[in-house]
Amino acid sequence: MKFYKRTETRKINIGGVIIGGGTPVAVQSMTNTDTRDWKSTVKQIKQLEEAGCEIVRVSLPDMESALNAGRIKKNIKIPLVADIHFDYRIALEAIKQGVDKLRINPGNIGSKDRVEAVVKEAKSAGIPVRIGVNAGSLKSVHNYKTVSGKAKELAKSAMEHVKILEDLKFYNIAVSLKASDIATTAEAYKIFAGKRNYPLHLGITEAGSIFSGTIKSSAGLGIMLYEGLGDTIRVSLTADPVEEVKTAYLLLQDLGLRSAGIEIISCPTCSRTEADLIKIVLEMEKETSKIKELKKLKKPLKVAIMGCVVNGPGEAKDADIGIAGGKNTGVLFENGKIIGQVKPDMWVKKLVSMIKKRLGS
After folding, report:
1. Domains and CATH numbers, the chain
2. pTM listed for this prediction
């Protein structure tokens, strides 16, 4: 698949994870626990780590939650981002607690001296700041009826916030410009990328449930990533945040940007299908999700599960391993060659064993 060249951006270091400058697009998520309950927050972050999350953000709405940031940081393996609004003292405490990055809007932290205090400490700690601008919090955006007008206003707001930090000689910056509609978001990122080369964190905010939000996020993020934009992404879902990570990796894999470990190719089924392919594919996804070694693969292992002989043999031949269904049987392929036949109730077990054998597990 051909893509436009990725936009050149600065490199910044988020707790050991380098983003920007052409590095792989990093996968980010956010906890939905009460950060004041640091143990449940750590528990959820560990689940995110297991799923492959590379950067995690937690909200710090008050000082009690900020004082927990250090405990959380000590008990996790991935970089911790503190999401802060309105109170600059929470930002100062988060830095003191050892977070790896701040997510703020300089415009709502307070007066110039308060912004200066936060920037001074962030600079001293060597941590970056993400300027996060959301259309929903900008009253001025709603004055425009056109996508172009809304996008320009969103980019203008981001530039104003960036300028605040630049005037303080602070350039360790990442930027996000999110709206809940795809067109405004994509256009705003494109406008901003033409003005500054700070790394971009992509997302479609308030995207929705696991079903509608996955579709909306995939469409929006896919457009921007195809255009070469983006250094980190978050798929925002009203769901378990682990689902955000899974979706992000599959999206990046389908765009040829990252590997999620395995790529399952399966047909949509029709009256020629003899096996219960829907059930088999769901079971295959469940079983392969348990194989931790797959996450270490730089190139996805391609597995085809096809229901009949029309396109099945061709797709299975193109896969690393695969099965093309027939009546009460399935033709087993490996590296394009037929190696045997398998009954439908054994398809998953056989494919999983072949995958594990390839991984040496």
Report:
1. 12-254 (3.20.20.20), 262-359 (3.30.413.10)
2. 0.88
